[in-house]
Amino acid sequence: MGCAGSTPKVDEHGKKLKKPKPWKHTQAITPAQLSQMREEFWDTAPHYGGQKAYRISTEIWDALRAAAEAELSLAQTIVESAGIIVSNSDMTLCYDERGAKYELPKYVLSEPTNLIRDG
User: Fold this and answer.
1) Which of 2, 29, 49, 85 has the least CB density, counted as fewest CB within 10 Å?
2) pLDDT higher for 81 or 56?
3) What CATH number should be reported for the domain whose range is 22-108?
4) Domain edges within the chain
């Protein structure tokens, strides 16, 4: 409860997710190459952020992966349920409730504009 003139804090959990802006990879890549890049990131992601001493870090990475691979409405539900604080609405920068930072590259969130499609 604050005084009448105080400003309420904005609930960062409520930030609405948006699709990442279009981006271009350094060179044209195939869907298989993009998939491999994503797998490599997710396999090593816990080494790049979160709180290594806490099991919650792994749970947050799992939730971030599920959200990154889901449609926006489901992704929104996932991040809210996991208590993830979304700093950038495209999910490239997030925090857990303890303040640990999680950075996601755009290539795990969307496809590049120079993706080589078959046919």
Assistant:
1) 2
2) 81
3) 1.20.225
4) 22-108
